[in-house]
């Protein structure tokens, strides 16, 4: 059995446990689990299994008077806010039978409740079952609580993401200060490489242990004996936790297969994450189109082009958006997997080929044309399916991916993409001839307020991405008067640009600390920009030695690439990578 088939079976088996309980039930699901289901067949699978309704996991939702059964699917501990939401939903409903699935293992619930994780039985789950019966109002009603590892979402057979851990971000130097401050009576850590799991905040400890537990469940299903390698401090902690997982020892003794697992701190090379040098259509789609609500890895595709409705606000509310995930459509899935690995030009031609094939199957009057693929040409092919419900139904997935392509090709963001790419190349040349202050002076004229900007100019969010790129390229920077003066000018311009925004984007709201009634004072904005500049400056320090760490990712036996398979070896060969830790998604 190949790894890709094994992973598909692993996620399928996990969701099958949920599906076995949803018959005649109202299903309440949080965003992280919903995103996993989205790539594993979507809500269609729940309805096919007999679910009556699917609702968000929210205190403002409830079941109907004639709906006695509920299924909750959550990615969190069954305590605190999660327990409160379950209680609120039950209190507003008439349930007599409740089933709760959590992606967090019982052993981690024990740890979160200050009990020994090695304790046998399922005490925490049993206590929560009793609480549910109390909330339903009758101890004779039925409640079930169980753990299911629903943490993976298969974007493709060879690419899986972990939505449940999307908020896990690598440690940075500011975190080291907070960690040392939180343990005043203990020896201070000199660097992030010295930080261990139990010095981290409890919430982060739980997330790391949950990730290790989920990975252990996956390897157990695949009958794999893993050998872990880590590049970067946060990756070292995660890999070490997996290597020392209590249930892993027996698995490794009987496992039939071997695998090397590499954990890499993504922030070791932020230029790769924020740069625009990728020539991939999917990357551009994800950048150009708005995010699908509640998701981090899919977008909203405007489907109005397939209707006769006028393009206005009311119409957008009437028509559900399309998206990229098409797990139930083999033809669309094949197209998706193809364009994931193709360059932009090849991918656009592949989209055209699939559209032509779909139109031919439906005997639609398609006019073939060779040469360069344009959005107008693709749009004309898509319009052939308009008002033909059967054809749309048969090829709905392909049409969604095709519309996503057309809307991306027409998006102003695509023009900005090319502009970014050109400027990034100039910055690379500038760093060869100049230092950081001179490069910052080149960026300064680009920072404009809303009143001064044209459609071709960059927004504050665009400029933040560009600054991350610059500081990631800068390498080790020594503080000097020239740097301070250049940074001060950039800060002033950014503060003015942010303060002049009539309405802040969700990203800027999160950065600048949203206050009462959505109004953010200039003082808040100024403080936020100063804090951002501190973070940007640390990138130059954190990414020093970046070339070496890139070599580590490919050469696993490099002296800096730490093998965490053996805990005793882990202590003696600890990696000394003084960088920002990164995501393991």
Automatic annotation (TrEMBL):
InterPro entries: Sec1-like. Residues 550-585 are annotated as: Disordered. Residues 559-568 have a biased composition (Basic and acidic residues). One of its GO terms (biological process) is vesicle-mediated transport. Residues 569-585 have a biased composition (Polar residues). PANTHER family: VESICLE PROTEIN SORTING-ASSOCIATED (PTHR11679). This is Sec1 family domain-containing protein 2. It comes from Acipenser ruthenus.
